[in-house]
Amino acid sequence: MTELVEHGQLFIGGELTDPLGEDVIEVISPHTEEVIGRVPHASRQDVDRAVAVARRAFDEGPWPRAALEQRIEVVSRIKDGIAARHEEIARVISSQNGSPYSWSVLAQALGAMMVWDAAIRVARDHPYEERRDGVLGPILVRREPVGVVAAVVPWNVPQFVAAAKLAPALLAGCTVVLKPSPESPLDAYLLAGIARDAGLPEGVLSVLPADREVSEYLVGHPGIDKVSFTGSVAAGKRVMEVAARHLTRVTLELGGKSAAVVLPDADVATAVAGIVPAAWMNNGQACVAQTRILVPRTRYDAYADAFAQAAGALKVGDPLDPATQVGPLVARRQQQRNLDYIRIGQEEGAKVLTGGGRPGGLERGWYVEPTLFGDVHNAMRIAREEIFGPVICLLPYGDEQEAVEIANDSDYGLSGSVWTADVEHGIDIARQVRTGTYSVNTFSLDMLGPFGGYKNSGLGREFGPEGFGEYLEHKMIHLPAGA
């Protein structure tokens, strides 16, 4: 049995502080269905307190006024602290959300460390002031921190997403109120301790675990200058609506229904080996997962057999077992959601090629078998709606133009890939697909480039200079002639 982890205080402005409310969040293991942790549930009064200290730290404190190298020194210590404790972080996250431990080590913990490191590189090279020749005379363009940031992170990749928001915000000179998901608050306490030990000044960071109601209060708070949110499309629309009351700047990273396009000249074994981990990554609980696999109709049977065999061979089980490739879903509601979509897919006429229910021998835990549907057409709900689990669709296409049309026929536009023997031709396909991130003969997410979505997949960008710029305001200063 996993040892119960209990935190009785909230991390506000760098200090552990008694909560003003009495509600408690219980963290449930998706593997055992037992309580593995308890943390305070932040109240609205706690939000007021955290925003107030963040506001004071930004308006009066040293952090926004520190030299860039001073901020880089502190953030570098945070990065190093994550690296030193990456195995502990990975275990905690796997215990909370069911991520396979091997994936948690690489993506949840070390991946977060890479985000911090990339942000440092971007911040060091960013142009904070530049002189230009204006129409009426010389001008100075400055980039200054946006202010107090509300960073709302999901349960599926909590440290990675927290890093994507915290690293650029802190390096830009902002102060931050971090709101972890109620399903995965325990790793946020580890991060808070690392940040405190790294020497982050008073008031710069608070961590408030809370539900949707308190989150809405946070993003609508008049003391917040910017909201950075990752989550569902419905929640993102609500965040934008609430933030608009105060014209609060918003960055939204939302859902996806990404297409992996396999061209006729692709090697079957290579394509399958590359796409399977990109489709079933993190138990399918990834916004960038390649959940629609498009294959040539002329080679459909070969691909159906190969993908079904590969998916059926994935090892399902205890997320803390290093051999596990697919763990449980984060909550009972997510398990039921996936089982409902499996039923819907069959009712729509799609064929289950492998999986299709709960795995045998796992009576406890919120497990769903790695499931592949065949005979799917793009009008089906299973091809259009984000299922967020290990349920993947195989779609045949006629010619290349139809493949691109199917890939683009989606309310989403977050990720995608193409698999081909001709890389240059793959790049040409990438130019035609309306999505924010694309890969040719691979699947990756580079932290030095812009990440974000078209259409319902979001607004704004994370990572790279583009993502860093989301935490900066632009100021123009007119200068006299000859200055």
TrEMBL record:
| Residue intervals passing through the bilayer | none
Q: Which InterPro entries has this protein been placed in?
A: Ald_DH/histidinol_DH (IPR016161), Ald_DH_C (IPR016163), Ald_DH_CS_GLU (IPR029510), Ald_DH_N (IPR016162), Aldehyde_DH_dom (IPR015590)
Q: What are the Aldehyde dehydrogenase domain coordinates in residue numbering?
A: 24-477
The molecular function terms of the Gene Ontology recorded here are: oxidoreductase activity, acting on the aldehyde or oxo group of donors, NAD or NADP as acceptor
Which Gene3D superfamilies does the record cross-reference, listed alphabetically?
Answer: Aldehyde Dehydrogenase, Chain A, domain 1, Aldehyde Dehydrogenase, Chain A, domain 2
Active-site residues, Swiss-Prot/TrEMBL: E253
The answer to keyword Oxidoreductase applying to this record is: yes
Could you tell me what this protein is called? Aldehyde dehydrogenase
What the record says about family reads: Belongs to the aldehyde dehydrogenase family.
Keyword terms? Oxidoreductase
Instruction: List the Pfam families hit by this protein, alphabetically.
Output: Aldedh
